[in-house]
Amino acid sequence: MSNTSESEITLICANCGKEGSDVTNTCNKCKMVMYCNAACKKKHRHKHKKACEQKVAELHDEKLFKQPPPLEDDCPICFLRLPSLGSGRSYMACCGKMICCGCTHAPVYDNQGNEADNEKCPFCRTPWHSSDEEKVKRYEKRSELNDPRAIFNLGGFYNEGLHGLPQNNAKALEIWHRAGELGHAAAFHNIGNAYKNGNGVERYMKKAIHYWELAAMRGDAKARNNLGVFENEEGSVDRALKHFMIAVTDGDYRSLQSIKGLYLDGLTTKDEYAKALRSYQAYRNEIKSDQRDTAAATNGYKYYESAV
Fold this sequence. Notes:
This protein has 308 residues and is mainly alpha-helical. It folds into three domains: 10-39, no CATH class; 76-128, no CATH class; 130-286, Serine Threonine Protein Phosphatase 5, Tetratricopeptide repeat. Helices cover 53% and strands 4% of the residues. The strands form two sheets. Strands 1-2 form a two-stranded antiparallel sheet. Strands 3-4 form a two-stranded antiparallel sheet. Helix 6 (185-197) packs antiparallel against helix 7 and helix 9 packs antiparallel against helix 10. The N and C termini lie far apart (56 Å).
């Protein structure tokens, strides 16, 4: 086993072969080769270009296809994993908490065991907003605190022209960029959709892919599914399958259906489809509860899609 310390490693210029501690000019893209100066780097560029691009692509795919952490934290009341469907969770602009549908709609009882007023936030017990103006003010207040969820939702209000705000795609994109920079994955997903569809910007598929990738690497299953659909349309079935499998783990039902389609078309194996079904079932087991079932049945919505 070598005892060579990092300080004893000989640095060699990839262009001229010069050795020494002053060989410190690294390739800006792949970070894999060293040069003694900028002139050597420029001279060697045409020889290094192919290997550099290949290495950069490999490093990018390593990050892109890594299983991301869950997009949301657990519900702060029941401590179960939050559903990926929007109807399965609600953002509380009063306290900044994301609450599952079960806890949002669960009955509340007083100390005497009588059902109490349920027109309050289930977490901080602040009364619901009484007007669109009050709702927007709550979101703006949370936005001033750099709450990425509030900023993201505020962008959605402008995108759709909701709650008394004017419809403004360009402003929505500006707000979503801020939310994305603060770590909100779905904001990048929406920006990607805007570039795909030409909403507030010129249609530009390359940028759509870029923002979907940013969202997917941060855990957004919808963006991951979009990437899978794109790769499948481009004929890259293996890459599409990788995206779909990751999205299924995060509860994306459309990706499960896409894998089923690939299997029926003979483009993937029965084992892969079975693996996807198991992953989706595992996700359902994590998010399912009697309280959520009752809330969904009572209020006429669902918090997961049936895999049957």
